[in-house]
Design brief:
Oligomer: single chain
Structural class: alpha/beta
Order of helices and strands: EHEEEHEEHHEHEEH
CATH architecture: 3-Layer(aba) Sandwich
Shape: globular
CATH class: Alpha Beta
Number of helices: 6
Largest sheet: 7 strands, mixed
Bound molecules: flavin mononucleotide
Distance between the termini: 17 Å
CATH superfamily: Flavodoxin domain
Amino acid sequence: MLTKVSVVYHSKDGHTKIMAEGVLEGASSIPGVEASLHAIVPDDFEAGVWTNAQMLAELDEADAIIFGCPTWMGCISSPLKAFFDATLDRWYPRVWKDKVGAGFTVSATPSGDKLNTLSDLLYFGLQHGMVWVGMERTPMNDEGINRLSVFLGAVGQGVFGSTEITLHDGDRKSGAELGARVARIASELGAGRSASAHS
Ligand SMILES: Cc1cc2nc3c(=O)[nH]c(=O)nc-3n(C[C@H](O)[C@H](O)[C@H](O)COP(=O)(O)O)c2cc1C
């Protein structure tokens, strides 16, 4: 049985995109999982309202959705919020109920109030009746995975003073770890649901 994992992200300058690609890589590493990236882009806005019916239809089919954005002024970025608000018609009929969910964010400073952004992502998922997954790994490892020690989701930090758009290496790996964890759990849940449907 194929498990579908979608990664929805907004990124203005590209740091969050690097992390989203790490999340995608991690999810894709789990056997039987098909993972896809969905960017929130300016072309999908009309008079400030986000609209992309095809993306929403694809997300309806996902077993898991992982959301990511930069932290802006201690909150989620406004383009991701516009996307969130555009999911209201999925909320009434509980279309995303029981999908697995998770979140990630990137900001310029080590804290940067990223926890508030992750809380926003969590509350959005809970509004939809999703089952939320956090980070499992402690920072006690040599790869820098979860080096900022956050368990509500994966977090990243752009490298200050760099002319290149780059993330600390461990942060991309943190994203990959979250993606793999969500994909594995979604896969196991799907198998369990399928077994109970046939018993
Ligand atoms: C409007 C705005 C607000 C920001 N607010 C914060 C903040 O509250 N905390 C922080 O550490 N960085 C903040 N930053 C920096 C971004 O989070 C950081 O540059 C991030 O890497 C951008 O992600 P992106 O490259 O994917 O667009 C802000 C940047 C912008 C443009």
